[in-house]
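dumping this here so i dont lose it
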């Protein structure tokens, strides 16, 4: 088994490249994640900054007035899909990731100019595809977990060494569904 050798400084300088596209996030996610022709009830940008916030629209024609609106659920769908866009779909083959997980580190509400923003920060962990498949093969192979010679501690050290950790921010304009009444 041959793991990729990477310069350790490469990992610390691996911020995900912001997505730039002619199409809106709504259009791209509708195509990539096979939603209805219209996608999520969103507009605006990719949510990298407050100025580029993803606008969640409770009044979008897609939203059924007969169902309680869950804007937070839409935020989490958007987070998952943007992460997959950044780490898989918008990346060339050979530079994609697997074993992707994310953990919320921070959430804060920001009021600015009559608008309400939800700012989320996540730690994202993942593995380059090649490392992921090699680790998986090592663990599940004939001399893997359960075999008397398998060194679980050494495997976990290798796993931690190959894991990539990234912090990402997500900005949402939640003005349409935030109830600020007392």
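and the seq i came up w/
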């Amino acid at each position: 088994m041959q793991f990729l050798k990477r310069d350790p400084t490469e990992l610390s300088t691996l911020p995900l490249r912001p997505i730039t596209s002619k199409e809106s996030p709504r259009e791209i996610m509708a195509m990539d994640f096979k939603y209805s022709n219209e996608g999520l009830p969103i507009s605006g940008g990719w949510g990298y900054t407050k100025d580029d916030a993803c606008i969640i629209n409770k009044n979008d024609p897609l939203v059924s007035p007969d169902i309680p609106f869950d804007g937070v659920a839409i935020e989490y769908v958007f987070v998952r899909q943007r992460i997959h866009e950044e780490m898989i779909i918008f990346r060339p083959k050979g530079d994609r990731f697997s074993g992707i997980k994310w953990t919320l580190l921070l959430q804060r509400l920001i009021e600015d100019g009559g608008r309400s923003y939800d700012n989320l920060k996540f730690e994202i962990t993942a593995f380059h595809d090649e490392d992921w498949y090699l680790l998986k093969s090592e663990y599940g192979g004939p001399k893997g977990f359960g075999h008397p010679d398998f060194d679980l501690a050494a495997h976990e050290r290798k796993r931690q060494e190959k894991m990539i950790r990234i912090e990402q921010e997500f900005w949402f304009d939640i003005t349409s569904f935030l109830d600020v009444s007392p």
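The CA atoms of residues 68 and 165 lie 36 Å apart.
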